[in-house]
Amino acid sequence: xxxxxxxxxxxxxxxxxxxxxxxxxxxxxxxxxxxxxxxxxxxxxxxxxxxxxxxxxxxxxxxxxxxxxxxxxxxxxxxxxxxxxxxxxxxxxxxxxxxxxxxxxxxxxxxxxxxxxxxxxxxxxxxxxxxxxxxxxxxxxxxxxxxxxxxxxxxxxxxxxxxxxxxxxxxxxxxxxxxxxxxxxxxxxxxxxxxxxxxxxxxxxxxxxxxxxxxxxxxxxxxxxxxxxxxxxxxxxxxxxxxxxxxxxxxxxxxxxxxxxxxxxxxxxxxxxxxxxxxxxxxxxxxxxxxxxxxxxxxxxxxxxxxxxxxxxxxxxxxxxxxxxxxxxxxxxxxxxxxxxxxxxxxxxxxxxxxxxxxxxxxxxxxxxxxxxxxxxxxxxxxxxxxxxxxxxxxxxxxxxxxxxxxxxxxxxxxxxxxxxxxxxxxxxxxxxxxxxxxxxxxxxxxxxxxxxxxxxxxxxxxxxxxxxxxxxxxxxxxxxxxxxxxxxxxxxxxxxxxxxxxxxxxxxxxxxxxxxxxxxxxxxxxxxxxxxxxxxxxxxxxxxxxxxxxxxxxxxxxxxxxxxxxxxxxxxxxxxxxxxxxxxxxxxxxxxxxxxxxxxxxxxxxxxxxxxxxxxxxxxxxxxxxxxxxxxxxxxxxxxxxxxxxxxxxxxxxxxxxxxxxxxxxxxxxxxxxxxxxxxxxxxxxxxxxxxxxxxxxxxxxxxxxxxxxxxxxxxxxxxxxxxxxxxxxxx
Length: 733
Known about the structure:
single chain; mainly alpha
């Protein structure tokens, strides 16, 4: 029978071995599983384990180094100890391996966006731990030890020190302020009003592009773009640092609409993956991109090559040197532990080698990516995870949540207990929320956004004012296009605060779908977007719109619960109960949503519609159009920092929509924040834009003078416009 003394003695003997092997297990897990944080379909348990491993990995490595330091210090006072004469030098060899563990894996440098801001703290930790480790090695290494083992230790020390400082450098590179400097900002115009003219020119060029594409008559410029760029540019986008692209770059990005929706969806997903690697890993991905301050940098290329060489060669050399060294003097268990440390550390390093090959010098090696995918596929199979990516979009239905609670009262009661620890909302979102595979809806969403942009450019956008008005619309444009200006209730619902509009339209959409006699939406995208926007309102309000209220969802749930209280008719579904109560309600969200749904159902496609009518689906056309506008409205007002932050948990559909809007020529958050005051009339801007288009070599001042002469000869030109032009002439000179 083991006594407490025996347990303490065993722990004193095995403590260091357990710590180094535990640290090794954490690093191997992170090397294999951490890259799949970018997938929204990752099991929450694995995501939790990644978080715990990320936080605990550094702590365990530091604790192991401290234990090693104390152990060696204690052994120095007992030089006659058998351990001192046995595995003393072998234990010191573990120190640089622990340094490598402290540096982390290539596949994860930060778990959250905020972790990147702590790079200076990691520099301090790296300096202190390297200093302690070198001191321990210098003071405790036996002069009589095998020279081959000494050389192996030196190699591992070099690799460990490099790895230890590689992490804080990666964190500094991905910190938000430094991330901003990585993008080359568009040059400021010498003339303040030149940007106004350039915007007008861009709008006219983009409209011309869309019209010609619609007529299958793309000009030479568009055809050249289409032939040169068979897929979208996938480098990290300026969207994430709230930088606006120059207008000539925006024109080139219009190639997006020439792609098949599936190709555009895939390319933008790859771009998001690249951005994830930039912000949350140590991978240095860059290429010949003019938007990068660091682009095809020779120093970075050479440094990456050196690091890759060290990663591959030094561990192999250390293993060989240890194999041929005199190991007879060491304990058998410590020899086995050393072999395990060397081989598994080398294996986890091999997994990161393909990631280093993404630099431009190695992009021609096509075998690197398939090898990387195969290694990770095998590892994922062993741990029971899918080897292909799932792209999930969260879905929240207010009526669906109540229905789930009613059918799962036991689970609902457990979730209700969470209010005592402040996690009731989190548990309810987790247990009663749903998710859908975006791959099934991605093509449809892409097609919807592109069709919306194309329709807007061809039929509505004529100048700067109409461009801004459309980008500010959150459903009004759809109502106007479908002749719904006289529908007062529908129009007023869009004039309410945005979060309240989302709630009302979500309830109204559900009521229209389930109302007895109403037609069924022939395309499920309306419900898909409705439930996603409700999820944002419930769980991610800062991305929905600044100032959105999470409490609206809870208030609506409480109102519905109060209305349905005492309703025991088991022959009715929950939706039918809600509709029956809505008919009697006189106030509240349910009443407003029911009134809105009633007016929508008066459109063709409503409750009394004839399926043979040519406008049978007009109601759903309006509902879908409003939801598309709301989705674009929200995406165009979300900060880039929030988009980048969401990538840590797999990303949001809203980020994908924002990228798609940018590539389709619509206004982004950065564009909206940098709107200028219009100083020219529409006619003058058009004249200047046409002159710029026809005489691109002319200076701005010359063009403005010419416009001024034309205005002088035109009686209808206002005095204010002439004065504005004179001011511009002075600025241009």
